[in-house]
Amino acid sequence: MAKIDNLAKVLVHDTFRPRVAVLCSPSAQALCEKNNLQFTQLIQPFCSLTTDLSWQEPYGQYIAPRGLCIHPVDLSTWKPPDNDSQKNRRILGNIVGQSLPPFPGITEDPSDQVFQKLHLNGRSYNYSLQVPQLTPWFESWRETFLKFYSEQQQSQHEFLNQFVACVLVIAAYEIKSPEDVSNILGKLSKLQLQHQQEWSHTWFFPAATLKFYLILHDNANDNITNSEGCYQSLRTTYGGNFCYMLRINSAGLESDEEIVSDVWSPYIQKENQIRRDILNSETLTVFEDIEPVNVDEPFHPLSPASEYPPSIPPANGEFSANNNENFLIRGKCFTQKDMQNVQIAVNEFIGKSLLPYVERQAKVMHESILNRRGVSKSFFSATKRLFGTGAKTASSIVYALESPEMITRKLADLYFLFGHYDGAYQLYHQIKKDFQADAAWVYYASSIELAALSHFMMTQSDPPMAVTRSFPVHYINEAISHYNDLCRMPEAAHRCAIIFCECLKHMGNFGEAAAIFIRMTSEDCDLRSALMLEQAAYTFIKLNSPRKYALHSVLAGHRYAKAGLRSHSLNCYLQAFQIYGGRGWKFAEDHVQFTIARHQASLQIYKGLMERLLSLLKTPTLQSAAQIQMFYKEFISAAGKLFEVDRTPRENVIPNVRSSGIRIVIASTGLPTGEILNYQLDPDSVEVSHWDSLEEQVLKESIDPSVIMFRPSRLIFDARTDNTVHPNVPCNETFYVEIPFYNPLSTEVSLRRIALKFDDTEAVESSVVDSMTLQSEEIKTLRFGASSSVRGMISFDYVSYELELGSVCVPFVQKIILKGPRLNSTKEERSGIVYAKDLRNKINVVGKMPLLQAEVENLPPALYHSQCTDFNLVLTDKTSDTTQKLRVSRVVLASENMNSCLEIRPSVASGSTGDLVLESVQKNYCPFAVTFDGSSSIRIPCLYKVPPLGDVATLNMLILYEIKPENEDPVVFSAFGTVIYRVIKISIKIPLLTSLRFDHSFLKKADILTAINLLRIQNLSKGRTVVIEGITFDTDAITIEEKTWQSSSNKDYSTLTLEPAQSCNVIFRTKLATNNFQSTDNQDFILCVDWKILQEPLQDNSANVSGTTVKGFHRLNIQRADILCNRDQSPILFQLRHLSRNKHDFNRIPCFIFPVELEFNCQKSGRFIVKIENDLKRTIEPDTQSLHTASSQAVYFIGKTSWTINAEALRSEKLIYNVALTRPGIYNIAPTVSVKTPEDGIHQTFELHSPFIIDQE
Fold first, then answer.
1. Are 245 and 319 in a shared domain?
2. What DSSP character marks residue 1194?
3. pLDDT tens figures, 926-938
4. CB within 8 A of 992, min separation 6: which ones?
5. Rg for the chain, CA atoms, rounded
6. Do 910 and 830 reside in the same domain of the chain?
7. In what order do the strands lie in the sheet with 1242-1247?
8. 1096 and 1171: one domain?
9. DSSP 3-state assignment of 682?
10. Domain TPPC8 first Ig-like, which positions (predicted)?
11. How far is CA 501 from each of CA 141, 148, 429, rounded to the nearest angstrom?
């Protein structure tokens, strides 16, 4: 804050001035009005004493009242004070609103006259602040508040604002005879006496009021002789010290050089402003009585959302001064001599009349005090002085004006008004004890207040008086406490605080001043509390406390907003943001930023508004979703207002355009026409390298064998491709731009009319997305199609869209910033931050070229494992210009390992109007000779073989079509180089469904050329019936002689039908050819199982639609060593089925028992005795937790362990036994099986192995 020399002393002199009543005759008033002034206004700039005068106090000491200034009051316009506190608050609010504060960061201050630049050193940061040089709104409020308080004489506890004298003014030209003087002065004296009798408490000395007689002489019209005669007559009657003749001019000046400067307007404008505010106060809004508005927004402790209704206009600049007054010339007839005469008249009145009068009255009151000193009014009063007052309560004591206490107080006030601060301090200090003893707390508080103020003024006198005691700060706190708590006089407390805070700041006690400012805040008056908090904040700057300064600025701004003063609230929040901004206090920073933005939008201050609101949305925050939604609503509202001003879309980052995820897709990639097509290929994935190698193979083998340097066709450009070259697009061909949009907010964002903005809008046609909704933290990618009819370079740098919120739609643009990978090759690149060029958004439009579009027909949306399905690959000529001399001559369809997954059926190939001829079938590609006629299409029938495993199958097809000019003319394309072909890349991802499950095993036979095979088939399809049509091998080296399957529902051995979830065992005999038995070839055999799935009929409303049949085959790889079996191997086969793992609580139940199924298979029929044993020597696996080797006693076989079976050949028998486990671990629960044939006495033993894991629960 700017420093004013001894501001506290000036404030005390201006607040406590001797009041002088003025009564003017009509003629005298008319004479003054010739200069557009009233008499009190005329002498207002000259009320200060300009000469060295003194008066003698009762002890003989001479007092020089330096800085003495009287306060003239016109009794003819004076009226009783208005005690309507609400009305006064409205007036004070308007006074503050008239003075607009500057805004740091918004208000331009090139000359550094508005702001003072400060540097504060905090604990963690150093701060650079812009603080207003002056706070005129506070000074205006303080002056008006003290003026209102001085006129409200509700209590008789002080005499500082009473009239000490009366000046009677008459005009010389209205006096024609000595009797006229007596008549005019008699009338004025009568008016003064009436006022004194009616308002006796407004007069300092009602019984002996000083009267001073002043004659106005008009130099232009009056006769000086008559005026002198009248003046001498007054001197004779009333004495020379009580009369004076003032000579002024009331006629126009002869030359402009004699015109003096207007010194009256500053005083008059303040008076007129207050007068207008009083007249208009009945229609003003009561800012403090505003009820909060119910809004559907979350409450924030300092949120401005509910501080004032939006219908209340800001008070700033609401009431302007009367324009007519601005054109009045004050003192238009005055000369410099006249101004000197007025000053001399005031000095004469003070020096010859007022000060001697004060001297006499002081002696009289001093003698009266001496005569009554030591006499108590009553025994009760004396007792209270001796023993104290007890508990402090509100007192209703009122002293008589003639009481010693009031006479002492009056003398102390007289001393204080006329500069005798030492005597005033002694009397205040003396009388406060009497008031304290009588529990007269109003009088007591006022006395200690003035005692402290007298002490301060003694130290500020020139030269300073010697004081023995330090400044009594406790007097201030005690006075404020008594005013607030006991006397219920908040205005008196505020007057005390306002004055003494300036005194404390002048003495350097900023901490105590700030504490008093904060103490004076309350819920009663928002405006007053805002001013106090703001001053406290500025005081904390002097204490180098930036955080306290910011906190109290926020609190002040909050109270300003509640009072309806948004400009002042904005200033406070801007002051606080200088501390909170960028310091990591996210919640505080967000609140301050949001409030600043709301105030700027309300006040139509748009500088930096969008940046503030965007900072709330684009940076990471911990705010709740409701709070973010409120930020977003304010952002849309402010953007709409700003757009209405200049109709220019603003740049925005909500939602965020992920520039790194932008992809350019050339049309010849083959655009998706169905949901099953997926063209989102990752450039760094295996598929891309597969495309490149496949394209290189086809190019070198089928199109141009002379190619040495191969450069793959890039039809997709994204962040991981080489973007240092421009994408090339032929004229009138549509290319696509995929842009991901990310919503970082925790609220929903709706967009409308989303489009790309190209530099050449006339030549480029681009698509527009009507609408899109992004949920919280959602990413959506939009595809924009565009084409250019003119060759050359086109670029897109912006995305335009409208943000929609309710019924409000606001247009925005967002800049697309592309940069390549960071370079790290040279020293300069490693030491700096250098990025490669990224030219994805700069499209090179070249000449027209033929264009084919590929589509897939009749490919189901889902397929079964190992299914074979037919589909058509349709190639359509989409060339827009049929007159160009270029044509498609050959088409090459390529796919990896076409024989195993993709087969071409050229016998059924056809074209609508075009021709298709298959040239050959290679391992990975098939070339065709084609002829297109106009917009013709060609269908290539294909068979797709679905893999037997996996959840998703991927069908990749690369289509190259060779382009040749007509008549074999060479065509060179400057952009592409020598372009001879174009490519289409298709990647189809198809979800797979489960069909069948196959488990193959052998039942070996003694014959070395034959073997018994067991094939278990299970139908895994959901709700579908499967028919097994055949089981064959892929070679003649092995044949199937006979087969049998177990199926209760099917007795026909030619086909096998399996219902859903049904399984079946197929046993068949294989025989090897003799020559193959001796062969040394180690190639495995392939077992082929052909099947078909009967689809259930579909229901279409009430009509039945016939079902379809899906065919397929499975291929099982059988090792050759298994077929070439040993004749010594047994024809008996065992298989165990049980759980693989389980949990059990061994602490509660010490044993876990579960069943095991043992399946018995044999090649021949007969009677068998099967017995299972638990081999005690078998090693049991250690427990995974305890890592110890368990004993064999941990595994028991319970129940039946021996069976006699009458088995049929190639039929399975199921044997069930129970296993008991006594501790957790990993065990082999398979038994040792012994099989005995009673007919031939053969006994065989089989050791089986089957692990089982049991865990402790």
1. no
2. G
3. 888 888 776 678 8
4. 862, 863, 864, 865, 946, 947, 950, 951, 952, 953
5. 54
6. no
7. 1202-1207, 1166-1173, 1232-1237, 1242-1247
8. no
9. coil
10. 687-864
11. 15, 19, 21
Q: The pTM is what?
A: 0.71
C-alpha 651/C-alpha 340 separation (Å) is 65
**Is it the case that residue 1190 has pLDDT exceeding 50?**
no
Q: Are 130 and 117 in contact (CB under 8 A)?
A: yes
100: which DSSP letter?
P
Residue 787 has pLDDT above 80, yes or no: yes
Quick: pLDDT tens for 141-182: 998 888 888 876 555 788 998 999 999 999 988 888 778 888
Q: How far apart are CA 361 and CA 1034, in angstroms?
A: 139
Split into its structural domains, the chain has a count of: 6
Contact 812, 800 (CB under 8 A): yes
The answer to whether 508 and 475 are in contact (CB under 8 A) is no
Of the residues 989, 1014, 1034, the one at which a domain ends: 989
Residue 1154, domain CATH: 2.60.40.10
Longest dimension (CA), the chain: 175
Mean pLDDT score of the chain:
80
Residue percentage of the chain with pLDDT more than 70:
80
Helix (H, G, I), strand (E, B) or coil at 331: coil
Find the helix or strand (DSSP H, E) in which 845 lies.
strand 842-846
Q: What angle do CA 39, 40, 41 make, to 5 degrees?
A: 90
* Degrees to nearest 5, angle at CA 448 with 447 and 454: 90
The answer to whether residue 832 sits within a structural domain is yes
State how far the Cα of 265 lies from the Cα of 664, in Å rounded to an integer: 72
Give the C-alpha distances (Å, rounded to integers) separating 242 from 177, 215, 237, 570, 1022.
21, 11, 10, 55, 123
Token readout for 1255 is 């865990």
- Any domain includes 1193: yes
Angle between helices 566-580 and 586-603 (to 10 degrees): 150
Can you tell me the distance from the alpha carbon of 480 to that of 502, in angstroms, rounded to the nearest whole number? Answer: 15
Structure tokens at 1012: 């018994």
Which residue type occupies 954?
T
**Residue 1170, domain extent:** 1132-1256
Tell which residue, 166, 208, 168, has the closest CA to residue 184: 168
- Between CA 70 and CA 21 the distance in angstroms is 10
Distance CA 130, CA 111 (A): 13
**Residues whose CB is less than 8 angstroms from the CB of residue 1180 and which lie 6 or more positions away in sequence, other chains included:** 1189, 1190, 1191, 1192, 1194, 1195, 1225, 1227, 1228
Tokens representing residue 257 in the block:
């050089």
Burial class of 201 by CB neighbour count within 10 A (0 to 12, 13 to 18, 19+): exposed
- Return the HEC string of 764-798: EEECEEEEEEECCCCEEEEEEEEEECCCEEEEEEE
CA distance 402 to 368: 10
Estimate to the nearest angstrom the gap between the alpha carbon of 675 and the chain centroid: 38
Say if residues 164 and 17 touch (Cβ distance below 8 Å): no
Q: Are residues 979 and 1006 in the same domain?
A: no
The strand pairing partners of 1255, in sequence order, are 1143
> Is the confidence at residue 770, as pLDDT, over 90?
yes
Are 192 and 341 found together in one domain? yes
Q: Cα 1135–1137–1139 angle (5° rounding)?
A: 150
Instruction: Write a three-state SS string for 463-502.
Output: CCCCCCCCCCHHHHHHHHHHHHHHCCCHHHHHHHHHHHHH
CA–CA distance, 837 with 722 (Å, rounded to integer): 10
- Integer Cα distance of 1019 and 1057 in angstroms: 10
Q: Quick one: angle between helices 490-506 and 473-481, nearest 10? A: 160
Residues 6+ apart with CB under 8 A from 700: 707, 710
